[in-house]
Amino acid sequence: MTKAAFFRNNRQPQQQPAAATSPSTSDHGLASRLNNAVRFGGAHSSDEDEPSHAASSSAQRYGNGSRSNRFPDTSEDEMSPGNGDHGYAQLGDDDDDGADRDDQLGAPEPDPRALRRSDTYTRLPERKRTLRQRTAELDDHGPSAIHAPSPPPFSRALDSTDTSFTSPLSPSFSAERLPHVGGSGSGGGGGGALSSSTSTAATALTNISAATELTSPTYGSDEMLMALLASQATVDCESMSIGAWEEVEGWKKELSLLATRLDALQTRHQREVKILTAARTLQKLNQTNKRISRQTMESLEQSEKRVEAAEKEVLVLRDREAALRRRLNEHWAGVMAWEVRRLERAAAESSSRQQALVQAAESAHEREMGYAKRVTALETDRDAHDDHVSELKAQRDQHFARVRDLESGRSRELETSRSRQQETDTQVEALEQERDRAIGRVRDLETEGARQNGRIAELEEMIVEFGRRERALEEESKAHQDELAKVQSDRQSWQRERAAFVSAKEQWAVERSGIGHAQDSITSERSAWVKERTQLTEQHRALEGQFGALQTVHDELAAQHEQLSGQHGQLRTAHDALQVDLADIRAAHDDTRTRHCELEETHQGLNDKYVLITSQSSQAQLDLGDLQAQHRQLQAEHQELVDRHEAVESQTGLLQAQLGEAETQHRATQDELATLRAQQDQLHKHEGNMQSERTRLLEAAGLAKTASRQAAERLAAIGTAIGALLGRDTVPDKELDDAIADVGTLVQSRETELQSLKEEMLEVSQGLEDEMRRLRADRDGWKTKASEAQAMADEEHARAEAAQAAADEHAESARSVTQSQRGVQGEMMELMRKIRGQNEQIEHLNKQNDGLAADLETAHREITGRKKAGDADPVATNAKIAELETKLSAINSQLSSVWTILPSSESREQAGFSSPSVVSPNATVNFAALQRAYAEPATREEFPGVNALADRVRTLIADGRLMIERMTRMEVDKERHKANAAKAAQLVQDSSRSMETYQRQVMELEERLNKKTRLSSRLSKASTTAGDRASTSKQDELDELRATAEISTAAKQRLETELANANATISRLNDINSNLSARTLTLSDEAETERRTLQTQLQNQIDDLSRKLRTTTEDADHERARGQEQQMQMLDELNSLQAEVGQLRQKLRAKGG
């Protein structure tokens, strides 16, 4: 598309074109072409004469020069002045006639003699003078000379409205204001920038074109200025990088997302600024109150931190947005610069082609002038023949007079004169016939000249059309080469990504194995710690029993102490009574000695009782010391148990931390696996894109073949027309030597033209052969890829068959693939049912365990409350303990039953995936061994404990995960096989279309060969008169066509063989795809359902385990607090006992003293 056509296609609807003059009909088409070519030649000659006029050269390049490639293939409507081309006709005062002549390019070809009446050569000096004057005026006055009497409508529109051009792809991008051309706004100078997108640039250029077309006769200068600015911008933008289509689309999407995020962040920043302002106001108001001021200061600091964080995020997003806009602007500028350069090259090529056409027209004009000269010479010869005939008639009359005079007596001479007269009449008749023949030849030559002129015009148009098609083929070939290079680069990048993916996968497998070993070691250590914790728990329970026994002894001692206290009170009462009696006795001592002896005996009994009480008190003191020693020992043992319990708790915390780290690493590994799978999906998508690219290349190859066929048809038409032109020459050599010489010259010129056309046809054929060779290489490459994909599919199929054979090792060998897959599916479903039943039993046990834990917690709270209240009931406690033991035994029996249901590690190792780190769905699994492992065992194993049960539950979860992974992989394989089937069907359709196209080409070649055969037979008949040179050239051309037909036949056979192979491959792929689809369709839905069920169960188990861990931690803390409270109570009781014993001793000493 030329620059003028580009302006016309992008013209805005509201711009009205300037009024144009009506086309002139006085000049003829070929004359107007010659005038246009001479005008272009004059423009170029002025550039050569004055090379310093850069503005004039730029104007000729962007103005008149771009007009030169429009008239060969532009319709009459596009050439009319109303379509935006009237601006090119305003270079001088006399350009209106030139524009009128340019509008007549579509007129029919006139007679060649009309060229003598044209004023082409008279207008050339005037046009040169006008162009030199305008160029000199531009050089003398500079940019200030480029102005208009009033601002153009486009400038006024820029003065009154906003002049920012916003790209639809970048909302906030706006170009700089365009300069006002010659108006009062910004002067006559100024520069502009290319817009940010192709559509915006087209709109801007359309506006500029409309503005310059609506101005006064200084439009040419304005356009030269814009051309200079465009050239400068093109040079400045050549070094800017151009991104790929996908990359630019990614930038646009990212820019739109960044704009949305930036708006949200700006709103958040404004909100945070408002909050900060409010916080500062509150801080100023609350400075007098220290407590509120401190809180306000903290809120102010937090608000400042949030504002700073929001500002940082906004700045980061703005930097990213600016970088993306800069990249997009550079991309758009580089693309526009490339487009301008392409238009320049197209204009130059069109100018060169126009010059060649002008030269061809001049040569045709010279040949027509030679034909006219020869016709004039023939007319002169005809006049000479007429004079000679008149002379002969006069001589005949004279001779008749002499004969009449000599008639008498000269009979012999009369006979002689009669014979002479007959000869003379014969000569006259022969001369008249020759004159008539010469007149006919002259008329034939005139008709032939007119036909040759028409044929010359048709050949010129055909040559132009052929050149255009050749350029289109070259552009398509370049595009195909670029696309092939892009595909090769994508393939190399894909191979690099695949190698990186394989290395990452291997590294991940190594890390996964290390993680598995670490998990095994952690599991073993944890089991050892759990066993140690169980032993410590049992020891703690035994110590608690001993403590209960000691508590009972303590209670008994307390009862004895109360009894002793009662006896002490009785003794004290008796001592008081004795004191009263002793006073009475002392008062009556003198009266009665007998009573005194009795009193002495009573006193001795009392002393014996006192000694007995003292011994009992000392024994009680010794027993109290023993109790204190035992209490200290129990306290030491209890402290030791507490320390060991704390150590176990710390180890448990470390284990939990390590388990959390292992789980974190496992999640990270799972995330990496998901990332790798996503990359694999992307690679599959990339392969699909490559397949679609291949399909598009095949379609482009078909179009190229069609275009080559059309070009070959045009070449055949040209050869047929030239052969017909040579075959119509029927003038004998002996009758007219001059005509033979002229025809020989014409034949020689036509042979020269035919030879040049043959060379061009050979070049095109070589280009087409190169293109076909490249397409064949591409096809072979795609076939290699298809074979590789087939090999991969066969390998996957072999793996699937091996898995089926391993699963059905006891089945019959003649069972079909579908039945074996159903058997494997049934086994897997049975395993899933068993696993589901075991999970339900585990959940039931977990619920019972939770209920037991709740009962234990309730009993513990009741016992603690009773101890604190001081009304402990041993009978109720023992009953509660017995009930709890009964529940524990029931739970233990249920756990034993679950233990017998779960498979052992040895039986699972036989299935092929005993390690939990092996999760590859491609691993071979012995489903029969797996089914036996989950079947009911023949022997009952002893329940080792909760740790072993937990290990088997973990293995059960690992088996479920493996099944989920295998189901997921089968779903992915099913989708891949579906995609392969669709691609194979598309390949069959493409191959069928290519075969049909090639068959049509072969038929056309056969038709052409038949035509050439008939033409060669006709030429062989005419070769006796046309000469050996034409026959030799036609024979060579016939041989070439026959060789081409043979090559085409061989290529047809080769393509048929390749199509048969492709059909066989596609049928094989369809069979494989149908088998795999039948195998995987049934499993996909069930696998998805089982995956969701297992995922839900695993999540529930994880939640239960987390809840149990929290409950255990809370129980340990509560037990520790309860032990401390019991120790404090025992210490308080011991202190109270010691105080009471001390008081008792003091009283006994006082009584004894």
UniProtKB/TrEMBL annotation:
Coiled coil: 293-327, 617-696, 828-862
Keyword Electron transport: no
GO biological process, one term: cytoskeleton-dependent intracellular transport
Protein keywords: Coiled coil
Signal peptide limits: none
Recorded GO CC terms: cytoplasm; microtubule organizing center
Pfam families: Uds1 (PF15456)
Biased segments, Gly residues type: 182-193
GO molecular function, one term: dynein light intermediate chain binding
Region annotated Disordered, chain positions: 1-197, 382-441, 780-824, 1012-1037
UniProt domain Up-regulated during septation protein: residue ranges: 226-338
Chain intervals with Basic and acidic residues compositional bias: 110-142, 382-423, 432-441
InterPro entries: Uds1 (IPR029191)
Biased composition (Low complexity): 12-26, 158-174
Listed Polar residues bias regions: 54-72, 1016-1033
Protein name: Up-regulated during septation protein 1 domain-containing protein
